[in-house]
Amino acid sequence: MRIACPFCGDRDLSEFTCFGEAGCPRPLPDREDAAARFLEAVYLRDNPAGVHRELWYHASGCRSWLEVTRDTRTHEIRAVRFASEAREA
Amino acid sequence: MRYSLWRILREACSGHRRWEPAWRDASPKSGYEVIVVGGGGHGLATAYYLAKVHGVREVAVLEKGGIGLGNAGRNTTIIRSNYLLPGNNPFYELSMRLWEGLERDLNYNVMVSQRGVLNLFHSDAQRDAYVRRGNAMHLHGVDAELLDREAVRRMLPFLEFENARFPIQGGLLQRRGGTARHDAVVWGYARAASGLGVDIVQNCEVTGLIREGGRIVGVRSSRGDIRAGKVAVAVAGHSSRVAALAGLRLPIESHVLQAFVSEAVKPLIPCVVTFGAGHFYVSQSDKGGLVFGGDLDGYNSYAQRGNLPMVEEVCASGMALMPMIGRLRLLRSWGGVMDMSMDGSPIIDRTPLEGLYLNAGWCYGGFKATPASGYCFAHLLAREESHEVARAFRLDRFATGHLLDEKGQGPHPNLH
Tens digit of pLDDT for each residue in B226-248? Predict the structure, then answer.
């Protein structure tokens, strides 16, 4: 598996660390339903067999956080962008 | 048909032409008391103990492919009960005791070999951690021995003791641990369950769950609708997918774990040995191949195959532990899909949906747990209460905070 880092280019898997499913933002702790939201954000996952949006850290490269869209059945990478772009989108 | 020496002699008289299939390949009936989804070791063991211990004979095991072709056939066959936490240890010790009597119980040779499991330590801190673990094991009546460097050297003289970075200081040995023949475990449970009237249905993929008034009353499958009083899911690796059929999200990620076997060599490694400074575990199969593995690849995967960086890391760890294996060639490597739970411990519990029961989250420790997992899941299904050694394996522990994090890694499944 190789990941095309938007900053460094096409790099080997060994340079990256996976942080798991993207789109699990930390809830605000002072909300009334904070406990239920923390359970979802910290523990519960869709874990699909198919297209999966996930966070990767380019540890041995530019140290960017990336959002990678990847098929968990084939490891085929569909798209890579900076996690900051994903957050703004 | 009971297997015995007498039986072999009798069959020999007819040229071994009258042996019957070990188990019955059944077609699904329209309904059962219990449907077990998943024909791996855990599912078949659940069906067996339901029939044997609890007298529940109207049981079907539904398997989407052939039995034992998932993780039951993809592990490194290690059995042990050297756990630290009070929520885990008695469960794995029950499993160990079931392993010790399994062949007599099933009338099937599952090749349990109590050759010992030795966990090496390489620093003072690691020694302290293993002393603590050994003490915890003693408190639960489990055998554990702390070996110093010289005792390890007498046992395994070929290890790299002079490694300047990770010198071997000793090890924690569980002599009752060892290995078992993984396929035989599947076949043995299948044969014993089938003999008690359990229907084993292959090529039957569950595609949906039948709900009536908020209750699960059966499954939709590739071989038609099948009704059941209770539906028990034991599909580790794919638990999230089956749970999604019921609209549930689980605290589980599916990850790929690779395993390896080398070409066969003469008897070399007498026990199971693990490297404490990396993640590497190895034993030698009866055919002579070194069977070994290491860490997860670290990303979600249902692909049953991994990538090369982990192959390199596992082999490098092996070389650091026993440099002599550098000249061995790899015969095969393969990947399995692990049900990685958020705290590294399993789930055997009811679900929020009445009639649906879950056995999941085995991470990469599912093989050794096979007998106790089936035993405790059957107990839950038949008696509607958790078995006393499996009470901590609750689904709601992630909400209540009663986690079972053996390794202390936090909610990062790829690090457990």
Answer: 999 999 999 999 999 999 999 99
Say yes or no: A76 contacts chain B, CB-CB below 8 A: no
- Residue B264: the pLDDT is 97
Task: Establish if B40 touches chain A: CB-CB under 8 angstroms.
Answer: no
In the stretch 5-64 of chain A, residues with CB closer than 8 A to chain B read: 12-14, 17-18, 20-21, 35-36, 39-40, 42-49, 52, 54, 56
CB contact under 8 A, A45 and B250: yes
* ipTM of the complex in this document: 0.95
> Nearest chain A Cα to B338, which residue?
A47
Question: Has domain A2-23+36-88 been given CATH number 3.40.228.10?
Answer: no
Tokens 């029961």 belong to residue:
B357
pLDDT tens, position by position, B139-198: 999 999 999 999 999 999 999 998 888 999 999 999 999 999 999 999 999 999 999 999
Strands B224-233 and B31-37: parallel
Q: If you average pLDDT over every residue of chain B, what do you get?
A: 96
What is the rounded CA–CA span in Å between residue A10 and residue B260? 29
Q: Which residues of B touch A74 (CB under 8 A)?
A: 303
Q: Where are the domains of chain A?
A: 2-23+36-88
Instruction: HSE, CB side, 13 Å, CA atoms: give it for residue B90.
Output: 12
Interface-testing mutation among B302, B342, B414, with chain A (most A C-beta atoms within 10 A): B302
B313 near B295, Cβ under 8 Å? Answer: yes
Select from A1, A44, A74 the Cβ nearest to the Cβ of B249.
Answer: A44
**Distance of alpha carbon B98 from alpha carbon B101, whole angstroms:** 5
Alpha carbons B117 and B110: distance in angstroms, whole number: 18
pTM of the predicted protein model: 0.96
**Do the beta carbons of residue A61 and residue A8 sit within 8 Å?**
yes
Q: What is the pLDDT of residues B40-89, one digit of tens each?
A: 999 999 999 999 999 999 999 999 999 999 999 999 999 999 999 999 99
